[in-house]
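## retry 2 of 3
previous attempt timed out at serialization; input unchanged, resubmitting
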Amino acid sequence: MALPVKPAGIAETDDGFTIDSHLLRMDLRTENGISLRGLQLHRPGGEMLRIESGPLFELGVGETVLSSEQVTVGEASMDTENGVHTLTIPIDARPGGVPIAGALVITVGIGEDIGMNLDIRNVGDGPIVPVVNFPLVRGARIGSVEDTWYLYCRKGGIISNRPTRQSKYYGGEYPLQVSDIFNPTAGSGLALLTYDRANIYRTWELTKDVDGVDWRMGYFGFEHEPGARIEVAPTALRAHWGDWRAALGIYRDWVSGWYKPQVPRKRWFQGVFYYQQVTAWSVLRDRATGQWRTADVVKRFQDFFGRLDYLHIFDFGQSMVYGRVGDYNHYDELGGLETMRAEIAAVQAMGIPVGLYIEGYLCDDRGVWGSEHVPGCDIRQADGTPLMWPGSDTEHMMCPACRDWREHLATTYGRVAKDLQPNGMYIDQYGFINTWKVCHSSEHGHPTPWPPIRGERDTTEAIRAGIGNPEIANLTEETPNDVNSQHQDGALGYSVSANDPELAPHRVDLFRFIFPDFKVFQLTQYDPFTEGDWDLLKFPFFNGEGFWLHGGTDDYDPEAADFLRKAFAILNENEGAFCSDDIEALVPTVVPTVYANRFSAADRTVWTLFNARYHTFRGDCLRVPHTQGTHYVNAFTDQLIAASVDGGRATIPIELGARGVGCVIAHRE
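## retry succeeded, writing output
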């Protein structure tokens, strides 16, 4: 039976507590440990939500890990203040050999959440590296397992009902703080959210198998001194009507309350769709004569693609004496500062912004700065040896939490900005926030081992401030997590190439639709787009994003080049829609294997389309609100579409090739 809708509250039972939000009931057993015994929706059909009874968390040290059903539980207390109900359950893992104690705190009455938090500390006599897995939800399903779908906001994003096993760290791998299960037929779902603005490093884990969906968060372990608080992100479960869009909307509403870019985002940068990387040493400058030929290179790309939106110079700072990375001031090796500044200014005079590359992690120990400072700032591995760039014996990976390195980067970006006056400045390797960059040094002022998430945040913030001129865009190699992204204007993106086409055939980039003014340039592959190998180029267009390209004009099949020319033209001609805040991912379509994204401006709405079938699609694909005087155009053929209008809605037909993309534009009078 469905439960009647009731006010939020907490009630004691014979062996535990029930916690009610307006839409969800949680049943906790608190005798002999703590078990999450059940979840149920307050709505007709609410009994369709089921979970497997089991532990809510795990605490451990080393090989000893206790589930919440194995910890010692003290006398719980309940409190109500200003309509917020709080249940505090003391917990102690010491009897099981784990020196961690504190409380599980459950709250209701703040919105529709059932809030959950672990307030725990190291209560031992010495330092520990704690194991914390929280929350644990097992076997969740709404209706049948087959009809239970999930939203998993890894890089790109997955919306599927297929079996899977996923584990990604919060950061570039999992940039948004939400996951969801839902049943599209029942029209209801259950969201898992964290409200973390402190950058706590943890995995978001989701498994779907024959029993349903399991959720688990695993917190990165680092050394805690006696008495130290163990950080755990504020966490919530929230029931909702609708599907994954409702869960993403809950997350978006939370973000909108605090998200603020460090400097205003730049409209000119949002309108860049074709980002071309070149080298100074071998492309812009003739090695034999030393003469620069930048204008000729730019014209070659313009003639080939019909335009060039942004020129990125990869190796302006490379020195054949002091190394590729670290100093960025040996201008004499490329003809001198005045020559380089003049070449950049000449491109800018053509209306093309110019960007410059600086490494966020690497520093060469042969450099002027590096020869003195590298040993005190580089990342140390668990065995105490420096982390080196693979294949190099002079390029060290530097710790982003090291103050000296951070100050050097901020100063360097500021100096180069004044020296060469670029339009954009790039921070290589930042944004991934992966475990390869964990630092074990005890000399940098951080705990050990220390993940890169907070170091990257603080260093990107310092770089942004160091650049000075707010009209210069800064971007990283990968799209970072929500919190860190406030300190930059955009990033390259690997979501198109990294997403799983079996689970996400559309290769959607959900981050792009949550943060529409954050510019992303998809790097789909390093290899040439030849011999038919250019399929991934379709998806930056589908997401309304920019393209990162490198190499020469002979690196493209005729079909790939033709597609890019048309895609660049459509994106630029409809810049107002693609740069709008009024955008929506994966809008409903007539046919489930045809996917669509919407981009709306005052005078038009643009839908990008992707046909996931392996054969041509012909037929109705969209039903959309219609206003008098609106006409519809196939952007790839420039032909009017004969839409049928009935009751204020237009049904739009289209032809899409196998695995092809398309675009419909509604022009409003």
